User: Fold this.
Amino acid sequence: MKHRKLLQFLAILLVAVYGIFIDWAWPGIVLLCAFLFYELVLKKIVRHQIEDPEQTAQLNSQQIIENYGEPDDVILVDAVRGNELDRQVLVYVPQKLFLVAGIPLRWDEVKSITFNNCANPYLVPEYQVIIATTKKGFESMHLSAGQDISWAQGIAVAMEKYVHP
Assistant:
């Protein structure tokens, strides 16, 4: 990663110096200043936003059991790979909480739940369950539900019955 940054910096510095020598000084200086501004200011702002633990808290199964206990219900998103955490939605009724692929999602953060066929003419139909939320960083969550439309519809209905009883 650090080597890539060094190569980027050297490439832009080379273009800037080359621009200065061929009487193309202003674009070269502006390019160099833009790169330095990006590296010194913008990356720190973006990095600070990404490293917010509330946004990126993806838990593993052991942490889930320690923090929330056993789930009240488990909704399988993909029956073939249902033992994987990112292929199930854990439901905690007393806390009014879903754990979607290990990401905590309160029921009041859910705007809508629907399903969609995301295939193109060259691929077999693949259905997704789409959860629209108000949670920052996770405004739209897409869960691959396989190739059965009734399975995808069942997942959306099962989740919707908890959010809007």
Q: What stands out?
A: The radius of gyration is 23 Å. Strands lie at 73-76, 88-92, 97-100, 103-106, 110-117, 127-133, 140-146. Residues 48-57 have pLDDT under 50 and may be disordered. The CA atoms of residues 139 and 152 lie 20 Å apart.
